[in-house]
Amino acid sequence: METHHIDSVEHITPTLFLTDNDVAQLADWHAAFNALRTAYASPIAPAMVPPRSMARGEGMWLRGLTAVSPGGGHMGCKLIAAGTKVKRASYLVSLFNQQTMALAALIDGNRITGIRTAATAAVAVDAAAPHRPLKVGVIGSGFEARGLLAALMAVRTIASARVFSPTPASRERFAAAFFDEHGLAIEEAGSPQEAIAGVDVVLCAARSRDESPVLKGEWLEPGMTIVSIGSTLPEQREVDDQVIGRAALVVADMPEEVAHDTGDMIAATRSGVDFAAKLISLSDLVSGKASRQSEDIVVYKSVGSGLQDIVTAEMLLARARARGLGTELAHSIVPVSK
Hints:
Helices cover 34% and strands 24% of the residues. The protein has 338 residues and is of the alpha/beta class. It folds into 2 domains: 16-113 and 307-328, ornithine cyclodeaminase, domain 1; 114-304, NAD(P)-binding Rossmann-like Domain (Rossmann fold), CATH 3.40.50.720. It has an 8-stranded parallel sheet, with helices on both faces. Strands 2-3-4-5-6-1-15 form a 7-stranded mixed sheet. The longest helix has 18 residues, at 306-323. It starts with 15 loop residues before the first strand and ends in a 10-residue tail after the last strand.
């Protein structure tokens, strides 16, 4: 049997395990925003963020998102194990040191998707929207919508906000929670059109029961920035074809996946909307390679990526080390000479 030489481990920092409770204590919108903005301003080769992979079984699936951080610190993977029959899911993020190949951390990833999705959207809005206090319209009142607005509030001044949700009680709870937690008075709108009239930024995190679009292009006004995170699979719809058609720029965190694997863009293609020339990567927007005019409508479409997971996990690991949180594992895997 082939054997490999095990390197000396005296200089390798023990693997740190972060529980869901640890992540809750360490999460910080400013820190996530700054880490992700720095990452997207850096050169990112396509090979550093490959497409996600999926293994399927009877009533279960395992998804993997991998990435190499452009900061030179870590590379890693987020694994999601989900059982449709038992209606349960587990999330695990592993981080490996780029210099030593040692397993630096194992992190409960339950909260990481929400943190990175909202913080990356804030990076996109900050790069695209006018640099003044922002008027914001929110469509949706669930977990994702709350995260989008909270992350944006952490990095930009909000002049006013309105929210629409089909259920009055849901938008009332949304508004009350933001007033209690952040002191932001949010107006409850009776329709999506009312929620976004005259705003600078539209935060869209909602899908209808029948997967018909909840945001229509005819409602948009010049200069708006739209965030759309609810159409990540071919069967999902959030915005209509005219939203894509009216956009001067369609900014994507994963351009190929957004273009070919999301319901909104598949429908736009079928309707004859030619978006190829205006589809750009988020890194091009953040790094300044692409820019907008003041009257342009800009749409940010997100499907999520391993880069966001790994950069967010790196931020959590650094904060954990600084604050002495987490559990150092007594045993871990050991890098070997190859």
